[in-house]
Amino acid sequence: MEDIRICPTHGFYRGESCKCGYKGELILDKERVEKLGRLVSGILRHFPDKFRLEMDEDGWVDFDALARVVSRKYRWANQWLIKAMIYSDEKKRYELKDNRIRARYGHSVRVKLSDYPPAEEDVLYYGTGEEEAHRLLEIGIKPVNQAYVHLSTTIEKSEEVARLRTDDPIILEIDAKAAMENGIRIIKANDYIALAEEIPPKYIKRVIRL
């Protein structure tokens, strides 16, 4: 986790220096970034009802209402700091539009995400470990503790995900084009992540050992 600072030219960023080399004013230290991120992520992905926030089928909640909940939990937090967290997030976890906010991916609550575009990649990737890979080749890829299977748009990103769980990652190559042609909905969450309700085993076309 990194501090959030602000550059007068490029806006909010994370780390010591902006991409232009300017060392901006500190907005949030990394401890508060982590606290704020955990709370906002938890609300938007897992437990909006706990805070009596209404979420529509596409995952949107009212931004003002979310900000009020956050400020009650952390008195130092406000709308501006929430926006700083959102706009500086290189992983593009959140989306803010028309005074509504949502998590782009990672939901455990059921959401349809009907306004997401279909994935345009012909091939997608899923990073896992050796033992799980054998099981997935038999039963397919299904979500665990999440509403959707998270697929990566590049081998490199799938390896990053896999290495969070294992030192010896296995990458499964998914024939996304064939899956979508046969009616499986695969949607694009951001530049690096696509979502599917499940991937049957017949669409796992190749096992890549790194």
UniProtKB/TrEMBL annotation:
GO terms for biological process: tRNA splicing, via endonucleolytic cleavage and ligation. It comes from the Archaea. Pfam families: PTS_2-RNA. GO terms for molecular function: NAD+ poly-ADP-ribosyltransferase activity; tRNA 2'-phosphotransferase activity. Removes the 2'-phosphate from RNA via an intermediate in which the phosphate is ADP-ribosylated by NAD followed by a presumed transesterification to release the RNA and generate ADP-ribose 1''-2''-cyclic phosphate (APPR>P). May function as an ADP-ribosylase. NCBIfam families: PRK00819.1-5. PANTHER family: PUTATIVE PHOSPHOTRANSFERASE, TRNA 2'-PHOSPHOTRANSFERASE 1. Belongs to the KptA/TPT1 family. This is Probable RNA 2'-phosphotransferase. It comes from Archaeoglobus veneficus (strain DSM 11195 / SNP6).
